Amino acid sequence: MTKSALQIARAAYQPKLPKALKGFVQVKEGAATQSVADQEAIKELFPNTYGMPLIQFVESASETSFSPVNVGVILSGGQAPGGHNVISGLFDGIKKLNADSKLYGFILGPGGLVDHNYMELTADIIDEYRNTGGFDIIGSGRTKLEKEEQFDKGYEILKQLGIKALVIIGGDDSNTNACVLAEYYAAKKYGVQVIGCPKTIDGDLKNEMIETSFGFDTACKVYSEVIGNIQRDCNSARKYWHFIKLMGRSASHIALECALQVQPNVCIVSEEVEANDMSLDDVVTYIAQIVANRAAQGNNFGTVLIPEGLIEFIPAMKRLISELNDFLAANAEEFSHIKKSHQRDYIISKLSKANADIYASLPEGVARQLTLDRDPHGNVQVSLIETEKLLSEMVATKLAQWKAEGKFVGKFASQHHFFGYEGRCAAPSNYDADYCYSLGYTASMLIADGKTGYMSSVRNTTAPADQWIAGGVPITMMMNMERRHGEMKPVIQKALVKLDGAPFKAFVAQRDKWAIETAYVYPGPIQYFGPTEVCDQPTKTLQLEQAK
């Protein structure tokens, strides 16, 4: 591998660890847990891994000896900055327990486990990837581990390699799969532990025990830098409205965090749109009015931040998409034989009247995008819907109407952007480098303690790293039942933006001012080296949530 100057410099960075993990470690068990909802249904599905206690690691005065352990690791789902550091922390942790321990990486995600595609991760390999972005050390994939034949096929290679623990690094769906796998291996008494690590740049895998998912900090810094660049250009040329869609499959955490960092003229928060029962026209009118207000001051430019999943949060659109998801899941074969020119009429004829009317009213392009291939979970792929273009076109139409009525004096020209892949494989910020390394190291301690069905947890991360609290949370504690592919399935509950939470309240307190003024902030690139107040700051979201 050819290394950049930055990579060479970053290789020397030693991630910080919680004080409790630096020496000898002992386990402190908390109270028994229960799932966040649907307790009876989850308990019935997970009899061997339900109700386990919370775990915290604390310093110990006595040394404990450990036998060598072989561990497998999987990177699952979309990339997020810091994945390599989770693996580095895991490697260092199991080597500290016993120098003869081995780490095996399964290639290209969960599919590598099923297909017996693996490699041993040695010190030489690990050292190449410390503090780097991406998942390229072993690659990632989106194969869902949900069938017993997959579990048994995976067990064959685990048994062959003498692997006693498997660490799955992924988001809410990947960790749901980890929980199902842990339950299956426990029920079969296979003697294989399964541990999860919380990854998703979307920021929607969090709760009282998981403060933030890794990668969110870095991705938001990367996006905020680029948005800041656009805002500076916007304020220089003074002739364009920039509609910027930001990654975030369901929750608006990224859009909100970026808004707190860059102070745009408009930021739509999907959860607020849903709570206020806003229609698509309501959203368009809100944006158009801000455009008109700025135009009245001679400012025919601005920035609009749009969460990727917005369309699904507009209640009428959500009902339409829900019916579409269920219908297409049940009739995929039939729909695949319908000519493209007839698909729109076919869908309209099959939907309920209210949803058929909404679908018929949509522009051809958006209607087509709603029926494109589903994601692995059977849902519409919202990233394929060009919401930024849809909104700017509808805003332009409304402003033209207002102009004809004498309600708008000004010019409106737009530019469109979608920031997604740009942030997924960035070199991790100091925060993510430290946090991820600690998550991996914590996973090794959960393995040492014989735990399964747990997710690695590192909390109190707005404090200095030696004050961080490391432990584990039973994955079943985070689960509820949701409809997937037309059936009720156990899944980790997504954490959406809380409208009564400190980050959203901080945004609401300023947004009217940002809407009319040009109050842009230009954060600049991620800072790795320099003053602590620049380099080591966690996200504004986390600071506000922790009231620090």
Automatic annotation (TrEMBL):
<feature type="site" description="Important for catalytic activity; stabilizes the transition state when the phosphoryl donor is PPi">
    <location>
        <position position="199"/>
    </location>
</feature>
<keyword id="KW-0963">Cytoplasm</keyword>
<comment type="similarity">
    <text>Belongs to the phosphofructokinase type A (PFKA) family. PPi-dependent PFK group II subfamily. Clade 'Long' sub-subfamily.</text>
</comment>
<comment type="subunit">
    <text>Homodimer.</text>
</comment>
<feature type="binding site" description="in other chain">
    <location>
        <begin position="421"/>
        <end position="424"/>
    </location>
    <ligand>
        <name>substrate</name>
    </ligand>
</feature>
<keyword id="KW-0418">Kinase</keyword>
<feature type="domain" description="Phosphofructokinase">
    <location>
        <begin position="70"/>
        <end position="323"/>
    </location>
</feature>
<feature type="binding site">
    <location>
        <position position="78"/>
    </location>
    <ligand>
        <name>diphosphate</name>
    </ligand>
</feature>
<feature type="binding site" description="in other chain">
    <location>
        <begin position="200"/>
        <end position="202"/>
    </location>
    <ligand>
        <name>substrate</name>
    </ligand>
</feature>
<dbReference type="GO" id="GO:0009749">
    <property type="term" value="P:response to glucose"/>
</dbReference>
<comment type="pathway">
    <text>Carbohydrate degradation; glycolysis; D-glyceraldehyde 3-phosphate and glycerone phosphate from D-glucose: step 3/4.</text>
</comment>
<dbReference type="GO" id="GO:0005524">
    <property type="term" value="F:ATP binding"/>
</dbReference>
<feature type="binding site" description="in other chain">
    <location>
        <begin position="247"/>
        <end position="249"/>
    </location>
    <ligand>
        <name>substrate</name>
    </ligand>
</feature>
<feature type="active site" description="Proton acceptor">
    <location>
        <position position="202"/>
    </location>
</feature>
<keyword id="KW-0324">Glycolysis</keyword>
<dbReference type="Pfam" id="PF00365">
    <property type="entry name" value="PFK"/>
</dbReference>
<feature type="site" description="Important for catalytic activity and substrate specificity; stabilizes the transition state when the phosphoryl donor is PPi; prevents ATP from binding by mimicking the alpha-phosphate group of ATP">
    <location>
        <position position="173"/>
    </location>
</feature>
<dbReference type="GO" id="GO:0006002">
    <property type="term" value="P:fructose 6-phosphate metabolic process"/>
</dbReference>
<feature type="binding site" description="in other chain">
    <location>
        <position position="308"/>
    </location>
    <ligand>
        <name>substrate</name>
    </ligand>
</feature>
<dbReference type="GO" id="GO:0047334">
    <property type="term" value="F:diphosphate-fructose-6-phosphate 1-phosphotransferase activity"/>
</dbReference>
<keyword id="KW-0460">Magnesium</keyword>
<comment type="function">
    <text>Catalyzes the phosphorylation of D-fructose 6-phosphate, the first committing step of glycolysis. Uses inorganic phosphate (PPi) as phosphoryl donor instead of ATP like common ATP-dependent phosphofructokinases (ATP-PFKs), which renders the reaction reversible, and can thus function both in glycolysis and gluconeogenesis. Consistently, PPi-PFK can replace the enzymes of both the forward (ATP-PFK) and reverse (fructose-bisphosphatase (FBPase)) reactions.</text>
</comment>
<dbReference type="GO" id="GO:0046872">
    <property type="term" value="F:metal ion binding"/>
</dbReference>
<dbReference type="InterPro" id="IPR000023">
    <property type="entry name" value="Phosphofructokinase_dom"/>
</dbReference>
<protein>
    <recommendedName>
        <fullName>Pyrophosphate--fructose 6-phosphate 1-phosphotransferase</fullName>
        <ecNumber>2.7.1.90</ecNumber>
    </recommendedName>
</protein>
<keyword id="KW-0808">Transferase</keyword>
<dbReference type="GO" id="GO:0005829">
    <property type="term" value="C:cytosol"/>
</dbReference>
<feature type="binding site">
    <location>
        <begin position="239"/>
        <end position="240"/>
    </location>
    <ligand>
        <name>substrate</name>
    </ligand>
</feature>
<dbReference type="InterPro" id="IPR011183">
    <property type="entry name" value="PfpB_PPi_PFK"/>
</dbReference>
<dbReference type="GO" id="GO:0003872">
    <property type="term" value="F:6-phosphofructokinase activity"/>
</dbReference>
<feature type="binding site">
    <location>
        <position position="172"/>
    </location>
    <ligand>
        <name>Mg(2+)</name>
    </ligand>
</feature>
<dbReference type="InterPro" id="IPR022953">
    <property type="entry name" value="ATP_PFK"/>
</dbReference>
<keyword id="KW-0479">Metal-binding</keyword>
<dbReference type="InterPro" id="IPR035966">
    <property type="entry name" value="PKF_sf"/>
</dbReference>
